[in-house]
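Re: that chain you flagged

S.,

Sorry for the slow reply, it's been a week of failed gels. I finally had a moment to sit down with the sequence you sent. For the record, here it is as I used it:
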Amino acid sequence: MNILYHFRTRGTGGEGVHISGIITALRKLGYRVDTLSPSGVDPVQTKGESPYGQKKKVDFFSWISLHMPYVFFEALEILYNIADYFLLHRTLRGKRVDMIYERYAFFLFAGVLTARRRNIPIIVEINEISGHERVRKQ
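Prediction finished late last night. Pasting the structure tokens below so you have them in one place:
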């Protein structure tokens, strides 16, 4: 079985450890797992790396996430679905993918739309730490 693990996070730190654990477990079961994320990082390689510890410069998207008013940042998160929808279709073109496994992020729905359009089963993992204050309020 070929699985596409789709996520919209940095894929490092604690979340990278979690994503890597899921990918490793699926691979041990004999599945082929490819990843797709905006960062392009392979969480199996970067698991546990701090996304903040060795940062030398603040990139454009980090700056936006820290300084943009919430309503505009949320609008960008929603608009990201357009780019992600086309990225998913381009990634899936010519590939046999039997299932999409998606780590949910707020306002992310391109994976579900793509799965529905291509008739591919999708599992959506919602992983939320209850009781912890968010970096960005919503």
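What I noticed first: The longest helix spans residues 70-92.

Talk soon,
D.
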